[in-house]
Amino acid sequence: MTKTHHHDQWHELACQKNTKKQSNSGTDDQLSTAAGKQRDSNILQQKQKKANEKKEESK
Q1: Domain tally for the chain?
Q2: Range of 35's domain?
Q3: Do 25 and 32 contact (CB within 8 A), yes or no?
Q4: Tens of pLDDT along the chain (59 residues)?
Q5: Beta-carbon neighbour count of residue 32 at 10 Å?
Q6: Residue 27 · residue 20 · CB < 8 Å
Q7: Which pLDDT score is estimated for 22?
Q8: Residue 25 CB neighbour total at 10 angstroms
Q9: Is residue 1 helix, strand or coil?
Q10: How many CB atoms lie within 10 A of CB 50?
């Protein structure tokens, strides 16, 4: 296998993956953004809660 052939194959795979992502994200984009924000918010709240508990313990 030549170097250019390998690169072409990799490029083709990357394009296929990208196309799949684009076709999936059409209508779900808004939903996934909202879900992502909700998840991030939950994670931040958990971290804050742990930080507050540590503060209380160290007093």
Answers
A1: 1
A2: 4-58
A3: yes
A4: 556 677 788 888 887 877 666 655 555 566 788 899 999 999 999 999 999 998 888 86
A5: 12
A6: no
A7: 61
A8: 13
A9: coil
A10: 10
